[in-house]
Amino acid sequence: MYSIQCFSTAYMGTNTYIVSRYSSESAQEKGEPDCVFVIDAGGHKIDVDKYYSLLKRCDGFVFTHGHFDHISALPYLHNLFPDAPIAIHKDDACYLGEDAAALHLSDFSALALTPYVRNYFEQEGSLPAATLLLKDGDVLPFAPEWSILHTPGHSPGSICLYNESEKTLFSGDTIFAGGGIGRTDLRGGNYSELMKSLSRLEELPHGTKVLPGHGEYTYVE
After folding, report:
1. Computed over its alpha carbons, how large is the radius of gyration of the chain?
2. What percent of the chain has pLDDT over 90?
3. Fewest CB atoms within 10 Å of the CB: 8, 50, 98, 201?
4. Burial letters for 103-124: b for 16+ Cβ neighbours within 10 Å, e otherwise?
């Protein structure tokens, strides 16, 4: 059984999810998960403080894509859990690592946020590099109930995480509640690819819960 908790982080309201798996109801009552992973660690230390008490362990960090607002808490969390794998699709792995700052500055210049991003890198230094490169059809090695759906369009390496038995999808910035979709005007965005990705998600079972990268949850109708 899984417990999923959502925290809105930083000024862009990025949804950071703490996903905990319990072997039994008794383990859940005792607060003894056998797996905990973080999806889209946005924000900063002040945001991590909101959910740090839930991280009795950390088996991995997973990113639905590499945009800055979804990864900015990673340096702080990586210092706390240096052995936890850092998972992202191979096509967005360029957003992590010591050479990633230029890409983030370029992307967010379109949003007039260059000073903010530059100040971040001056304070935090470089981002940790990815240690686990994902592709379509993979499962998370630390939580194999969750499979990877490659859903490019918002970025080349955008993914969703899908748990068939739980009928739950983490959609990142591919799709939002109310029919909203991810923007395609940043580097590597592609509207045609996004439409193909949305068509794929429409084939998921009716009633699948969709947990997006921003805003409220929704369901596949």
Report:
1. 16
2. 79
3. 98
4. bbbebbeeeebeeebeebbeee
Q: How far apart (Å, rounded) are the C-alpha atoms in residues 176 and 219?
A: 10
- Residue 144 is inside which H or E element, if any? strand 143-150
pLDDT score of 5 more than 80: yes
d(CA 8, CA 75): 18
d(CA 100, CA 106): 10
Q: In what order do the strands lie in the sheet with 2-9?
A: 2-9, 14-21, 35-39, 60-62, 86-89, 132-134
Percentage with pLDDT > 70 across the chain: 100
Query: Which residue type does 139 have?
Result: V
Helix (H) or strand (E) holding 162: strand 159-163
Using CA atoms, how far apart are residues 164 and 179, in angstroms rounded to an integer?
22
Given a cut of 90, whether residue 27 has pLDDT beyond it is no
